Amino acid sequence: MIDLNDDMRQALETAMADGLPVIVATSGAASMPDLAYKGA
Predict the structure, then answer these.
(1) CB–CB of 21/35 below 8 Å?
(2) pTM higher than 0.70 for the full model?
(3) pLDDT for 40
């Protein structure tokens, strides 16, 4: 797990509105990749 500071959290929360979408990649227990936009 990544610890986010307040500045990082704020940047992620407003990413889409700021025109800077963030795509986060993770994988589950079955090693299936999952990509998701954050900051919507």
Answers:
(1) no
(2) no
(3) 61
22 within 8 A of 36, measured Cβ to Cβ: no
Q: What is the pLDDT of residues 9-18, one digit of tens each?
A: 999 889 889 9
Among 11, 29, 5, 25, which Cα is nearest to 37's?
25
Give the chain's residues under pLDDT 70.
40
Task: Say if CB 37 and CB 23 are below 8 A apart.
Answer: yes
HEC profile of the chain: CCCCCHHHHHHHHCCCCCCCCEEEEEECCCCCEEEEEECC
